[in-house]
């Protein structure tokens, strides 16, 4: 069993029926075909008590965002300006850090700062990293604890810090609330672009 197969085996039912994969959607990315093969097998899913959310290729009964919608400039990514250029976002964790394709492989995108770090050179390796360190990569502890107290998170909802983490907000349950994923990304984009502007000013001061 491959690591992708293992991840799919422990995940939810597909979020939508599987349509023919649209290669045009990810034609710019070397790992695009590998991502599409995973989604052809299971068209979007949740895993680790909804801590990991992989976006589907097409709409489903839960009416969450599709891959195309999540990557459209009109939803949230345009709010990040140049910080999202060259990236294709295909999954998110419970605290809204994103997993995305780039020309060089899979990156992890920090939603609060707009920073990225290399993660994997294949979807198979990405799945392996998720499986081996799912608590860190998906935020499973927060998803588990929140839902034990408050019930299942509705589709399209993620956990947000009341006080941003990169400004010193604590990684504790009393600093978290459940909010709309798109609104959360727009708010974090504002933080990230302000941070970027401050760093630019300092470089040229």
Summarize the structure in words:
The protein has 205 residues and is an alpha+beta fold. It has one domain. The protein is built from seven helices and eight strands. It has helices at 3-9, 32-41, 67-70, 123-132, 134-138, 140-150, 181-204; strands at residues 45-47, 52-54, 88-92, 98-102, 105-109, 116-120, 157-161, 176-180. The strands form two sheets. A six-stranded antiparallel β-sheet has the order 1-2-3-4-5-6. The protein has a two-stranded antiparallel sheet with strand order 7-8. β5 (105-109) and β6 form a beta hairpin. The termini are far apart. Mean pLDDT is 92; it is low at 200-205.
The termini sit apart by: 55 Å
Order of helices and strands: HHEEHEEEEHHHEEH
- Assign an overall shape: globular
Tell me the helix content.
25-40%
* Quaternary structure classification: single chain
Individual helix count: 7
The biggest beta sheet reads: 6 strands, antiparallel
Determine the strand fraction and express it as a percent band.
15-25%
Name the average pLDDT.
92
Total strands:
8
Low-confidence stretches: 200-205
Q: What class would the helix/strand composition place it in? A: alpha+beta
Strand order of the biggest β-sheet: 1-2-3-4-5-6
Q: Any idea what the radius of gyration is?
A: 17 Å
Number of domains: 1
């Amino acid at each position: 069993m491959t690591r992708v197969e293992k991840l799919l085996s422990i995940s939810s039912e597909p979020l939508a029926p599987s349509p023919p994969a649209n290669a045009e959607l990810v034609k710019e990315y070397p790992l695009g075909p590998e991502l599409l093969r995973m989604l052809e097998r299971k068209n979007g899913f949740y895993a680790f008590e909804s801590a990991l959310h992989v976006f589907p290729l097409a709409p489903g009964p839960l009416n969450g965002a599709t891959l195309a919608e999540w990557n459209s400039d009109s939803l949230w990514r345009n709010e990040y300006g140049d910080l999202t250029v060259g990236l294709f976002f295909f999954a998110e964790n419970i605290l809204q850090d994103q997993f995305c394709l780039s020309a060089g492989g899979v990156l992890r995108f920090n939603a609060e700062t707009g920073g990225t770090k290399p993660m994997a050179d294949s979807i198979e390796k990405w799945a392996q990293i998720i499986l081996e360190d799912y608590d860190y990569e998906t935020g499973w502890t927060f998803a588990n604890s929140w839902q034990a107290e408050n019930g299942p998170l509705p589709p399209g909802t993620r956990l947000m810090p009341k006080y941003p983490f990169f400004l010193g907000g604590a990684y504790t349950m009393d600093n978290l609330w459940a909010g709309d994923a798109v609104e959360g990304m727009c708010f974090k984009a504002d933080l990230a672009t302000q941070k970027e502007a401050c760093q630019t000013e300092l470089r040229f001061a």
